[in-house]
């Protein structure tokens, strides 16, 4: 069985971290997000198709150096084709019913159970569902009690949302879904294909699950995902290899080769590899990119520092993004992803 992982977005809401790396490679407890995705796949998935474009070389490099016991195909789109276009572009590798996963979810969904549900319902499409309070950033379903989905609306205004059940970003699809997607053009699965399948087949089902779920789409949800996995593993903090810690850490994770100075204090913070944090530094709810230096006596709150930046001593920041380098050529000014075309 094949699984397509949609890992081609720019991750604009995670800049400046995504100026220099693919979103799917952002570390959580020092492992790239894609590691968690591939590990949640059922045993029967023997082929993983990674739908990529932006920073695909980095993804390829990571997969070359890590063995997941499955065949991995890096399917490089010539240009971003949207969530639907990327699935269509993977068609040549699909041999039967298949899984599709957004690459930015961290969750407790059991895909085997979702596949069983799909088969019992004789569904054409089954999507995983998660209940939230604020649905406006997600796809929302209108669903009957037996799980039959009769409506899907992407990022509705709160007053237009049919329910509080959102698309959790994992689907099990019959191959005939591919016939609904036009070749070689930008297509949104959520805006165009799902509503069409609902109307045409009446065999579109929703599978709600409980436990945990986070869309790592923003800096805050990225920090939250890191905290959640720390909590699940009952860890106060996580550290990579060759670190020297002279300060205090809680609900934080640091990469490899990180130096933390005397009396520094890190709470709810993620630090990438090769970082030096000076003495008496306070970091609260921050992300610090690779190869950064944070000067002594600095105090950063709710802020993100991109790779290779130097924050001079005694800097005070709240709710700031630190990026003094040029924005990479071709990086979009606003979010595109599945909402391309707006
Ligand atoms: N290959 C490829 N090509 N992948 C893409 C493209 C593309 O053109 N555009 C987006 N992706 C990937 C992203 O990398 C991400 O893993 C996934 O598709 C979804 O795109 P996002 O940009 O993260 O969408 P979203 O978070 O706003 O909304 C989606 O996820 C929500 C749940 O997390 C939708 O599927 C919503 O309906 C859903 O509720
Ligand atoms: Mg997302």
Describe what this molecule looks like in 3D.
With 342 residues, the protein is an alpha/beta fold. The chain folds into two domains: 2-215, Alpha-Beta Complex (Spore Coat Polysaccharide Biosynthesis Protein SpsA, Chain A), CATH 3.90.550.10; 236-322, Hexapeptide repeat proteins (UDP N-Acetylglucosamine Acyltransferase, domain 1, 3 Solenoid). The chain has helices spanning 17-20, 33-39, 56-64, 82-89, 111-121, 189-201, 219-232; strands at 2-6, 27-28, 31-32, 47-52, 71-76, 98-102, 105-107, 125-131, 139-143, 149-154, 165-173, 204-208, 213-215, 237-239, 244-245, 248-250, 252-254, 259-260, 265-267, 270-271, 276-277, 282-284, 287-288, 293-294, 299-301, 304-305, 310-311, 316-318, 321-322. The two termini are 34 Å apart. The structure holds guanosine-5'-diphosphate-alpha-D-mannose and magnesium ion. Magnesium ion binds at residues 102, 104, 215, 217. Guanosine-5'-diphosphate-alpha-D-mannose (GDD) binds at residues 6-9, 23, 51-53, 77, 80-83, 86, 102-105, 138-139, 154, 166-167, 169, 190, 215, 217, 337-338.
